[in-house]
Amino acid sequence: MCFRYLVGFARLGIVGALSNKRLKLAARCRLWNESFFSAPRLKRTPLGGTRRTRSDGVRILVLGGTLFLGRHIVEAALARGHDVVLFNRGKHNPHLFSHIEKLRGDRDGDLVALRGRRFETVIDPSGYRPEHVRAVTDVLGGAIAHYLFISSISVYRDFPPHRSFDEDAPLAEGDQGYGALKARCEDMLEEALPGRVARVRPGLIVGPHDPTDRFTYWPRRVARGGSVLAPGRPERPVQLVDVRDLAEWCVRGAEQCRVGVFNAVGPRSTLTMGQVLEGCATVTESVARFKWVPDEDLLAAGVKPWTELPLWIPESDSRVGGMLLADNRRAVAAGLTFRPLADTIRATLQWDRREGAAGHDLPIRVTPIPPEREAELLAHCV
Q1: Domains in the chain and their CATH numbers?
Q2: Cβ partners under 8 Å of residue 292, min gap 6
Q3: Dihedral over alpha carbons 94, 117, 198, 75 (to 10 degrees)
Q4: Which 3 state secondary structure label does DSSP give 290?
Q5: Half-sphere exposure (CA, 13 Å, Cβ side) for 13?
Q6: Residues with Cβ < 8 Å from 126, sequence gap 6 or more?
Q7: Torsion angle defined by CA atoms of residues 171, 176, 181 and 183, in that order, rounded to the nearest 10 degrees
Q8: For each successive 10 residues of the chain (382 residues), what is the average pLDDT?
Q9: What's the rounded Cα separation, in Å, for the pair 126 and 67?
C-alpha cells in the first residue's frame, strides 16, 4: 500500500485497522518515492500519479514476460537495474532470461508459486479475463503496492468516424469479446486495489518480436517493390507505438508508482498512412509504386479491414471508423516518448528477416493478402 493511501486512512481515523505488515509496505513505498527527490516531500503529478527519478532497484513481478510487450518490459526493467521475477506457464520462449527467477504456474487455477511472495509492483501484459486478474490480486492482495495493467483502446464502446476520443470515453459493456473483457479486468482491479492501479491502453503495438504481422507486413511488402496496394487515402491518420518505447515507459511508471488511465498510442503528432509507406520505402531503399485504392472499392471487393490489409480501417465505418484517433496527451504528459518511425521500420524489418514470427500460430496473428490476391485487386480496382 503506497504512502498516499496511508495518509488517506489517517484522515479517516482508521490507520489502526491496518496490519503491521501493510504499514511496513506503505512506509517502504513512501521511501521509494521520497528517496528520488531532493525535497523530502512526495511530489505528485497533475494526473494523480507520483513522479521520481530512476530507482536503485524495484522488485517487479511480470505476468508473462516472454512473448512481445512483456519480453520488452523485462528487458527494459533489467536494463534499468530492477529485480525482475516472471510468472508464466513456460510455454513461450522458456529459454529467455535464464539468469532471473521464474515462477511456473497458471492463472487458471495454479497460483501456488505466488503465495507468500511480495513485490513492489506487478506489471501485467497478459491479463485478458477478469477472473484471471482477480486470482492474482486474491493471492497477493496487500503485498501489491502498485499494479500496472496493460489494457487496450479496444475497451471503448465505439469509435465514431472522424472523432478523437480520450480516456473518459464510454467503455464497452458486458463480458463478450476482447474489448469488453479488458474493460471488466480494469473494473475488477480498481475494485480490488483502489488507487494503486495504472491502466495503460495501447493501440497498435509494433516492433521486433511482434507475433501478429499487423505492422510487419508493410516494411516487408514495400521492400519487395513493384506495385503496392495502398488502402484508403494517403492522408488517412494512423496510430502505432513502438514496443520498446511503450515498455520503457511502463517500467518508468512502475518506478514512479504512477496511477491513472492512459491512452498509450503514438506518435505525438499526426501520422498518415502515406507517411508510413513512404517511410518504409526510404528505409528499404525500395522503388515500390503505391497504388491508392479507395475504401469503398476495397469493401466492394470483399477485402477484410485490419486483417487482410493491416492498418486499414474504413474511415466511414460507423462503429470503428475513428479507432486510430485516440487522444494521447495524458500519456505524453506522463513521459511517453516516441522514437523516429524510421527506427521502428528498420528494427522491425531486421528482426523479420532474421527470425520473424512465421513459427507463431497464435490467434492474434493476422493473414495479410497474398501477392496473387493483391495483383488481382490492383487489376480490378486501379
Answers
A1: 1-43 (no CATH), 217-241+271-319+341-381 (3.90.25)
A2: 230, 231, 232, 233, 234
A3: -30
A4: strand
A5: 0
A6: 63, 64, 67, 70, 88, 150
A7: 10
A8: 33 32 40 33 39 65 96 98 96 93 94 94 96 95 92 98 98 97 98 96 97 95 97 98 98 97 96 98 97 97 96 97 98 98 98 80 80 95 82
A9: 10
